[in-house]
Write a structure and sequence with these properties.
heterodimer, A: mainly alpha, 82% helix, flat, B: 4 helices, cell membrane (chain A), transmembrane helix (chain A)
Chain lengths: 117, 104
């Protein structure tokens, strides 16, 4: 579930990045604000289970990937081999970190070790 | 001055991530407000920096510093893993994100 929250945050991020760029009415800005709130809500939910550093990096990488894919698929930007290789690098990293992160271990250990904060 | 703004913007992001970590441990209004203020401050200084530094460059450095900072802070203060697999895959993701922002 926590990984779905990260994905949700990255997808919603795309809306507010576009919103920040193109908003020119009160309604647009309102929608952009709501998207920002949702994307941070999802990040916080994900951080309840997963390490924050991981969540933030995956969120940033996925967001950048989705924006590049949109440029290519929707806005008809030219396909560039450099961008494609970077996408592959990000996807490799996300899949790798997903496979090697033990969600349950992380949450259990955090409860055990974290007295001080 | 724009480069100083950019560094401040990146720290806004890093502090934002610190306050996320603190907030999920104990949900107080104060921690939530600090979280919002840090990220909002980060965006504000990023927009100041972007008046002089090209958009792609500013965005790439801000993203990279913010994400690397978030990982380091997690390891140093919040008992997050520093295992080589985690660091390797995280560096893939961050390098990829920085690269995409530079190319954009």
């Amino acid at each position: 579930m926590a990984w779905l929250y990260v994905l949700g945050a990255a997808i919603v991020e795309v809306f507010w990045v576009i919103g920040l760029k193109y908003s020119d009415s009160v309604l647009d800005w309102l929608g952009t604000m709501i998207a920002i709130i949702f994307s941070f809500y999802f990040i916080i939910k994900a951080c309840e289970t997963l390490p924050t550093g991981t969540v933030y990096a995956v969120f940033t990488g996925s967001g950048a990937s989705v924006i590049v894919l949109l440029d290519f698929l929707v806005f008809g930007e030219e396909f560039a081999i450099g961008k494609f290789l970077l996408l592959v690098l990000i996807i490799t990293g996300v899949v790798g970190i997903k496979i090697t992160t033990d969600d349950k271990e992380t949450a259990a250990r955090r409860r055990q070790e974290d007295g001080g904060y | 001055m724009a480069w100083v703004y950019l560094v401040i913007a990146s720290f806004g992001e890093i502090f934002g991530v610190i306050f996320i970590s603190l907030y999920v441990r104990k949900k107080t209004v104060g921690r939530l407000l600090l979280l919002i203020l840090s990220f909002a401050g980060g965006f504000f200084f990023l927009s100041l920096a972007m008046q002089e530094i090209p958009l792609g460059t500013a965005y790439a450095i801000w993203t990279g510093l913010g994400a690397v900072g978030a990982v380091l802070v997690g390891i140093l203060f919040f008992q997050e893993s520093a295992g080589w697999k985690r660091l390797l895959f995280l560096s893939f993701i961050i390098a990829g994100a920085v690269g995409l922002k530079i190319l954009e």
